[in-house]
């Protein structure tokens, strides 16, 4: 038997991709960081599989994925709680799962959260480009996964010994409607009235959201002028001239001309990434200034 076998995509909704911790250090060339939107869930998957924490996983952001396994392996699922079936039998959407040759795994509706993460023991055998396996158009040959795509993985014949213990993935942090943020470089230029409004507004996530950015529906009065192009990062919250708030996510551009009023931490990015369009939240502004070395 070959050491590596393939997982085949029988069907998929939009937004299924291979992601790791991203490709940092290439912003000067205009290359986005990319990587998993929810690093909390990604790291949990690799922790249970005893993979390196940076090992690539599948990020699944829509129901409808169905995959066929050519060879035995062990997988782990975390992130959003979804209706899953293995060979048409319902299974739990978390923890380790032994896969046999010919098994088929399908992802139904999401019950809680917006992104599911699936990892395999020893990781997916996809090319590493610019120190990352994360898919991104123009950098990687593999883009968003589609029907017929194949992903190689290591064939694992030995499975973990069954035990009475069950590991539960804690999703309580997904339920919080408070997103922590730090003042960005232009926060100090806002009026006190505007700062207060931002801190007391319940914001609604627009349907205009993807791996590049989440747009919020509520308008914030803005008297700030647009800037010369400046550095931005995943988690940067921009305030447009029209008063829209745009939260940059993992595939965001590396520069922008809108005032950078807030900056989210990795935990806050993960929390936001597990929310769906029209869900609401409020910002909790931390008093400590974010390190200016980021910018």
Please give a handful of descriptors for the protein shown.
2 domains, single chain, 35% strand, 18 strands, Cyclophilin, 295 residues, 4 helices, mainly beta, elongated
In short:
The protein contains 4 helices and 18 strands. The protein has 295 residues and is mainly beta.
Explained architecture:
The chain is mostly beta strands. The chain folds into 2 domains: 4-170, no CATH class; 176-294, Beta Barrel (Cyclophilin), CATH 2.40.100.10. Helix content is 11%, strand content 35%. The strands form 3 sheets. Strands 1, 2, 3, 4, 5, 6, 7, 8 and 9 form a 9-stranded antiparallel beta sheet that branches. The chain has a 7-stranded mixed β-barrel with strand order 10-17-14-15-12-11-18. Strand 14 and strand 15 (245-248) form a beta hairpin. The longest helix is centred in the N-terminal third of the chain and has 11 residues, at 39-49. The mean pLDDT is 92.
Distance between the termini: 51 Å
Shape: elongated
Largest sheet: 9 strands, antiparallel
What is the tally of helical segments? 4
User: How many domains is the backbone divided into?
Assistant: 2
Summed over residues and divided by their number, the pLDDT gives a mean of: 92
Number of strands: 18
Low-confidence stretches: none
Please compute the radius of gyration using only Cα atoms.
20 Å
GO molecular function: ATP binding; hydrolase activity
Organism: Algoriphagus halophilus
Keywords: ATP-binding, Hydrolase, Nucleotide-binding
Pfam family, one: CT_A_B
